[in-house]
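Notes, p. 3: input format for complexes.
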Amino acid sequence: MTTDSGQDKFRRKALQVPDAQARILPYARRLPAEIVALPDAQGRILAEQVTSPHPYPHFRRSGMDGFAILSRDTAGCGANRPALLEVVDEIPCGFLPSVPLTPGTAARIMTGAKVPDEADAVVMFEMTETIRQDGKTYIRLVREIEPGKNITPVGLELAAGEVILESGRKLGAGEISVLATFGINQVAVSKRPRIAIFSTGSELLGIGEPLQDGRIRNSNAYMLASQVREAGAEPFMLEAIPDDLELARQRVRAAFADYDAVITTGGVSVGDFDIMADLVSGGEVEMLFNKVTMRPGSVTTAAVKDGKLLFALSGNPGACFVGFELFVRPAIGRMLGALQPFLPEMTAELARPYTKINNFTRFVRGRLEAREGKLYAYPAELDESSVMITIKDSDALIVIPPSSEPKEAGEMVTVLKLPGGSF
Ligand SMILES: Nc1nc2c(c(=O)[nH]1)N[C@H]1C(S)=C(S)[C@@H](COP(=O)(O)OP(=O)(O)OC[C@H]3O[C@@H](n4cnc5c(N)ncnc54)[C@H](O)[C@@H]3O)O[C@H]1N2
Ligand code: MOO
Ligand SMILES: [Mg+2]
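Output follows (423 residues plus LQZAQKY5):
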């Protein structure tokens, strides 16, 4: 005789979050690179190291509109002993000096123009007085100018051959401007993992369908697609699967052939229609874990098939969201070769008490606020696994370790910063 509780989905060995993550990551293999045009590289992950092909700046550059001079011509000058220099050249930006500077001469020069080799300082217009005499132009200086003044030396920012960007770096405005500076208009970036998303549950309505009693709209698929996109991968929302194990098997099997990883939401607990729990324990895939010592998302499940990952996340929106952030995000990050695949960790002061106690680690959604040089974390009032609405107001997941005591306001907590949120 078999009893319900004899089934595999009831017998679960809970893993700690880091152990569960460690089981997944070996299967999150880096995808090959593709070449994209620089303007399309925004937000992508660099797939190769980039070194500077030349120093930057590559010529000595004027930092001011003024006059290039030999600083020694101003030695000892002052209000009563002005220096008088003849202006022998004019150098707009993009042009080269046309005559060598000799002692007693100066070249009119604009910000960003190449400084004559002989000059060792630029004096700004405002510090000079122009005198025209016998068809010649002179400047009068009443202050000593130190060597190097207003000249940007060659290679100030970068020498030739320096590593500018490491492989795995996310490309934003700063990185893109560096690449443009060096004339790199084609960039090798990691291919975006193609991720299949299935919702499961006979209660699910398409979001365009009118409400029906006892049924809900499929919000998780959209939430997950947004999370997938945010993590740098490409989401494919596939047709939702009703609670039919055989159908789920076929659909998931087919998805493995076409996508780099599969996410499902719903049906991973111990309910009669929790088909993903049955699928994962049924030999179709190799289970990595089906319980994690965390809340929400204790039933988060992961498996592999043909070397590809299946993330069977909870159907409860809060648990689904957290399951993605803790397990799918780092896997996508690894597939992209990202330098930092995990949510960034910070320390904050708990701004309100958190009274729920648990023997599992809680990842409580919350808001961050910085005041007077301190970071405060406000746990959401409603943070149940089944609650969706407060996800939108959260900047971070507040980590509450297992404890038999409530956490007081003022205690320091670790927070995992979420990429969305307004903080
Ligand atoms: N006897 C037990 N019952 C439950 C346990 C348990 O240990 N023993 N665990 C609870 C916990 S914790 C969670 S979390 C949930 C997990 O449920 P499932 O992952 O099996 O998800 P479903 O049963 O399919 O749905 C749960 C809930 O979420 C709604 N849902 C599902 N899919 C979507 C979607 N795409 N968009 C929006 N909402 C969705 C669904 O309608 C249900 O309300 O189990 C507890 N039960
Ligand atoms: O697994 Mo459930 O999300 O802990 O609440
Ligand atoms: Mg269920």
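The CA atoms of residues 395 and 422 lie 6 Å apart.
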